[in-house]
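User: I want to check something. If I give you two sequences, will you return the structure for each one separately, not as a complex?

Assistant: Yes, each is folded on its own. Here is the first sequence with its structure:
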Amino acid sequence: MSTYSFIDVTASMTGPTGIIDLGYGSANSEEGITVTMAENKNTMTIGADGEVMHSLHAGKAGTITVTLLKTSPTNKKLSLAYNAQSQSSSLWGNNVFVIRNSASGDITTARSCAFQKQPDHANAKEGGTVSWVFDAGKIDQLLGEF
């Protein structure tokens, strides 16, 4: 029987404003880090006679969501990077994410990444979480094995 643990996850965002650690030890919430592809890789078209045609799509775009505890010091680092990068188009959309699981060998690399928006910010009875969403131009993933 194999075991998964977020302890084995390392993640970083590297860009024009520096490197920010986003993996284990960054005060991630239970949701952790989620990679979502923007579109299907295939479209199946069924002809009038029942024959099928598959269309392979080249797109590799998607989103990366990093959810942190409200008290995570990483929120400040990301906020500073967001503010700095939003000052110039030459700084915008130039981040690279690398997410690894050392136990399984999973690796995700995302290029041409930009902050989607300033995260929602709530002050409530409980601290809650802060979700940072990034649009990624090209995502490559290789899932390993436990």
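And separately, the second sequence with its own structure:
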Amino acid sequence: MKLRFLGKNSTVGDCPTLYSTDRDTYLVQGWKIFANDLLMQLDIKEGETAVEVPTELFDHLTKDGLAPGEIRRLEDPIMILTPGGTFVVQGREVTDPEALAQMEIPDYETVVEVPKAAITALLEESRGVDLQRRAQPAL
């Protein structure tokens, strides 16, 4: 799998990162979720996992040719907007050694792969349901 770096939101020790792939997907590198209250809100299928990332990480989608905009809906693969201003993104856990070798992943982070179409759909206006009402705050 070939990766194209789109951007990261780094502070000291934190490095959520967004990549575009040659498989019409995005790789979202983010913090592993250990909070049971947050995990209980998710229906994680076998082979999938979830990561937490700053909402601003998706500003880097403009580097992949998308118009500037905000995530407007909470639907698969972005499942939760936390009170701390982060998104929980769920997707297939990346295990491809070639892809993982192209990234620097601290022990407290992991990577999920999500279809580009699923992310782009979340940038479109929804039919009468805004993001704030759909948000499920973490307990």
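Because they were folded independently, the notes below concern the second chain alone. Helices lie at 36-39, 97-101, 116-121, 131-134. The radius of gyration is 14 Å.
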